[in-house]
Amino acid sequence: MRFMMFMLPNIPQEGEWMPTPEAVAEMTKYNNELTRAGVLLELDGLHSQAEGVRVTFAADGKRSITDGPFTEAKEMIGGYWIIQVKSKEEAVEWASRCPQNDCAVEVRQIFEMAEFPPEVQEAAAAG
Amino acid sequence: MTDADVHRAIDAVWRIESARLIARLARLVRDVGVAEELAQDALVAALERWPESGIPDNPGAWLMATAKYRAIDVLRRRTALEGKQAELVRRSEYLAERAEVDLDAELDDDIGDDLLRLVFVACHPVLSTEARVALTLRLLGGLTTDEIARAFLVRESTVAQRIVRAKRTLSEANVPFEVPHGSERGVRLASVLEVIYLVFNEGYSATAGDDWMRPGLCEDALRLGRILAELLPNEPEVHGLVALMEIQASRLAARVGPAGEAVLLLDQPRDRWDQLLIRRGLAALARAEALGRALGPYSLQAAIAACHARARRAEDTDWTRIAALYDALAQIAPSPVVELNRAVALAMAFGPAAGLEVVDALNADGALAGYHLLPSVRGDLLAKLGRFNEARTEFELAASLTRNARERELLLARAAIETPPAR
């Protein structure tokens, strides 16, 4: 099974933000550990939410476009990992080893097509 | 946390830590079987303590420290038994002195080497193939005996026996805990790769059971392959095997139809191929090729799989390149099955007559007599050449040879179709 781990750093939305070389070195060590354990499938870091754009659809389908930063957002995604492991507990154990302070790592399982009911699978195949 | 939660968390820690733990212990006690038992003892201790104390911050270090004390005991006892050999005395005294100190940092540097030694020992040719598979999944994959038994549909006691016997064989044969060098290395590496691919294939097209695929085993094999690729970054065939498995695994969701039936490669809905795994497979193949040596059998098979993966539609497949790759494969790893695949590729690239020539040679050779795919392919090529009566005979022969009921139906249906069109 696959999980996505989201890095939710507690950093200001606005202004310049760059991780320190020490933090990057620690994180690289962690990423290498995931690779050496054969569990890491993919990872990426994201530009600041301040540079992001949000396309919002209202209940009536009306579309609006907002530039970041998004003041109402409580947390932002700084990056993600996709890992392949045997259990949710294993994913949580890997997330627990992330060498960071003042942040959260959220662990979410990725859907497999086989988990959907047949009619959903058919709709996906027809699309 | 309930006890059940803690036990599941301990399982997860075990999955992550057990191979490293066993590898480090094996270096200390120079016996993989003893190392595995020491690691198991540490696991039992964790199962007793952690539900009360909570899971420690560094569970790997806790397990290692617990196992290390017992390892020192083992070394002391052995030293006494073996008449106080100087080296062992020094070693156990040294370890006892350092017992308070954390050895992990010191051992950590060499953990890659220890893991690699463990890989080579678990796949040692002195063991039967079954024993190698069971030991590799147990020592390196972190699977329990029960999980291995369920994966291979055998009784748990059978797997347990296999592992006990394998450990005894290694001990009796005095198999050294080391990475092979020189001329031995190539043969031993081939044995490691064979074991991993065997695990993968058991998941990809199970030889027993109701489900003809068990993706969990494919994931276990991929994990082992990816670990090995980091341990041996300069071995092209390791990357070749990883590439082959990643690309084949990318098709898992597409190769089974709604009724659970097999869907052939060219009929698979390609939008259900896993692009992440394809990307990883192509990257692994590029790593193999970048090492600049002649491609080995796994890399060549991966290169063939990559041709299919790159084609957006079946009709976009680069059959000329696939035929050339099969040609190369037939030269370094000749087998009748490779030859049959080469015939199919030649037919797709250069027309049915080119393929039929190779198939007829195989037919005359007799090595594939009784293998239903030979007449099945021959029938297909004959039909494309308009030789319908001969084609029908081949499909009927193929139908009589297959053991799979559904395949038999399909072949008989094709035999029925292959009648000369009315004028």
Protein architecture, described:
- The complex is a heterodimer of chains A (127) and B (423).
- Chain A is an alpha+beta fold.
- Chain A has helices at 21-36, 88-96, 118-126, and strands at 2-9, 40-45, 53-57, 63-67, 79-84, 103-109.
- In chain A, a hairpin with a 5-residue loop joins strand 3 and strand 4 (63-67).
- Chain A is flat.
- The model of chain A has no long low-confidence stretch (mean pLDDT 89).
- Chain B is mainly α.
- Helices cover 72% and strands 0% of the residues of chain B.
- The chains are: A alpha+beta (127), B mainly alpha (423).
- The A-B interface holds A 35-39, 41-42, 82, 84-87, 89-90, 92-94, 112-114, 118, 121, 125 and B 8-9, 11-13, 15-16, 59, 112, 219, 222-227, 230-231, 253, 258, 269, 271-272, 276-277, 280.
Q: Compute the separation of the termini of chain B in Å.
A: 78 Å
- Quick one: CATH superfamily of chain A? Dimeric alpha+beta barrel
User: In the CATH classification, which architecture of chain A applies?
Assistant: 2-Layer Sandwich
User: What is the total number of structural domains of chain B?
Assistant: 5
User: From the alpha-carbon coordinates, what is the Rg of chain B to the nearest angstrom?
Assistant: 26 Å
Using a beta-carbon cutoff below 8 angstroms, give the protein chain pair with the largest interface and the number of residues from each chain: A-B, 23 and 26 residues
What is the overall pLDDT average of chain A? 89
Q: Would you tell me the structural class of the helices and strands of chain B?
A: mainly alpha
Question: Summarize this, please?
Answer:
The complex is a heterodimer of chains A (127) and B (423). Chain A is an alpha+beta fold and 127 residues long.
Topology overview:
The complex is a heterodimer of chains A (127) and B (423).
Chain A: E1 2-9, H1 21-36, E2 40-45, E3 53-57, E4 63-67, E5 79-84, H2 88-96, E6 103-109, H3 118-126
Antiparallel strand pairs in A: 1-5, 1-6, 2-5, 3-4
Chain B: H1 3-29, H2 32-53, H3 59-81, H4 86-98, H5 104-108, H6 111-122, H7 129-139, H8 145-152, H9 156-172, H10 183-204, H11 215-231, H12 236-249, H13 275-290, H14 297-310, H15 319-332, H16 336-350, H17 352-365, H18 373-384, H19 388-401, H20 405-417
